[in-house]
Structures are given as C-alpha cells and as structure tokens.
Specification:
By secondary structure, the protein is of the alpha+beta class. It has 2 domains: 146 residues, 4-Layer Sandwich (Double-stranded beta-helix); 78 residues, no CATH class. 20% of the residues lie in helices and 29% in strands. It binds 2-oxoglutaric acid. 2-oxoglutaric acid binds next to strand 7, strand 16 and strand 17. GO terms for molecular function: 2-oxoglutarate-dependent dioxygenase activity; metal ion binding. Keywords: Dioxygenase, Iron, Metal-binding, Oxidoreductase. This is TauD/TfdA family dioxygenase.
Length: 260
C-alpha cells in the first residue's frame, strides 16, 4: 500500500495511511511537509510498538519523554519507558489532568516542537482528543486585537510544580514563517506588565477565541491509532468522559535536533 495523506474538512488535521515498514528520510520529508501544512497527522491503525514509536518520532527531531533538562516538569513522576526513557506512559489510573486546553510544556524556555502519541488501551466509548489551530485563532482576531496581542508577552507555568518561562503572546513559526497565537489555558499564567484585571480579561478573551469549535478537530481513537501534532501552533484537550474505563497512551516529545 502506498502512502496516502487525506486532509480533513475541519480547521486542521490530515489522515495518513500506508506507512511503510521502513521509516527513512524520504518518508520523513513527505510527512514533515504534510505535518507543517495540516498541523496534526492522524495514523489510524498504525500499531506502533515502542520501538517504532521512537523510530517514527525520531524522523522529526530529538526525543524525550518530557522536558530533556530537569526543568521541574509537572509530569516527571510519570512512568517513562523505552531504552532512553524517551516514552511517557499516560495511564488513566494515574493521571487525567489533560482535560483542559493546553500546549505542552510552555512553562519551559524551549517547549517541545511536537509530540507523537500512540493509543495502547482504548476505552470502548469516549476518551477522544481535540486539537485547535492557533494560526487560525490569530488570523481571525479583529485587527486592533491582533495588534494588541502582537505587543504582549506572557508568563507560563505554575511554580513550584513546574518551571516558568516568558514567551511572546504571538510567535512566528520557525518553519512556516506564519504568525500564531501562543497562549493556552493550561499553562499561561499572566501577561507581563498588566494588572491582574487587565491580564485575566485579555487572556480569557484570547483563550475563548482560540477554543471556538470552528478552530478545532476531534479524533475518536481506536487502539493502534497514533497522532503527531505541532506544539508550536496547536493546543489539545483530552476529553474525560469514559468513567472508570482504562485508557493508556505512549507519547514521545519531539525537540529540535541538537547540533552535531
Ligand atoms: O490523552 C490525550 O488524549 C492527550 C494527552 C495530552 O494531553 C498530552 O500528551 O499532552
């Protein structure tokens, strides 16, 4: 079967089928191009074991389970698997905190550029994940609000549980050159230089604007599916509607390749 990439009709996302046995640099380039265009790639029934998860993720950068440095990653206590501890196991028996819109690790100076997630044990019903398009969120702000957002910087993180970092509220994607909103409800704590009344009101407005259903896509998982997202221009939300059912995923976080 040859590689096929089908764009979804929603604000972001494409479905990839026909992954070859061997993951090489040609495949890496094809997937990278599609990833930059569609922001999230879904791989139904890819059945990536941990070795293949690491192999596929490595096509796009260096891998770590969470933050590569010891930056007080809030999820450092979770199970890390793989030869280099680069796989994070997300087990519903231990943690269900991802049912808030967030971008991973924005409390770090250098957050991951993306992540690859593979569904291991899937609830019979529920447990979907949603993603939203932060380019679209930025581009659909009214011009005066866009100009305001362009001028702001925000603090991220919740010390002492996580590290803290300051990032511009609007960033430029290093590959596509597109401007993107870069705040999220999960980790953005406040806007620099504003009163708490001003900061809370602006952050709430930006987050509510980004989270509108028009900016989203939703994936209903089956065991064996995988998803690859760009952390620089998306947010995601794990829907906690599956009661006591078990849900287990394996995830690698992708970082820019260290200079050789
Ligand atoms: O459990 C999910 O569907 C998403 C997990 C998540 O939010 C994350 O890996 O950051």
């Amino acid at each position: 079967m040859s590689l096929s990439i089908r764009q979804l009709p929603q604000a972001l996302g494409a479905v990839v089928t026909g992954l070859p046995e061997k993951f090489d640099s040609v495949l890496g380039e094809q997937l990278h191009e599609a990833w930059m265009e569609h922001l999230v790639l879904f791989f139904p029934q890819a059945h990536l074991d941990d070795e293949r998860l690491v192999e596929l993720g490595s096509l796009f950068g260096d891998l770590a389970a969470t933050t590569p440095g010891e930056e007080n990653d809030a999820r450092d206590y979770m199970t890390k698997l793989g030869k280099g501890g680069e796989i994070l196991e997300l087990d519903s028996d231990k943690e269900r905190g991802a049912n808030i819109w967030h971008t991973d690790l924005t409390f770090a100076e250098t957050p991951s550029i993306g992540a690859l997630l593979s569904m291991q044990v899937c609830p019979e019903r529920g447990g979907d994940t949603m993603w939203l398009n932060q380019y679209r969120a930025y581009e659909t702000l009214a011009e005066p609000v866009r100009i305001l957002a362009d001028s702001l910087r925000a603090k991220h993180g919740r010390a002492p549980f996580t590290g803290t970092a300051v990032h511009p509220v609007v960033t430029t994607h290093p590959v596509t050159g597109r401007r993107t909103l870069f705040v999220n409800r999960g980790w953005t704590a406040g806007i620099e230089g504003l009163s708490s009344i001003e900061s809370n009101a602006i952050l709430r407005m930006l987050c509510e604007h980004a989270e509108r259903p028009e900016n989203t896509v939703r994936w209903t998982w089956q065991a064996g599916d995988a998803a690859l997202w760009d952390n620089r221009c998306t947010q995601h939300y794990a829907i906690n509607d599956y009661g006591d059912a078990k849900r287990v995923l394996h995830r690698v976080a992708i970082y820019p390749r260290a200079a050789a």
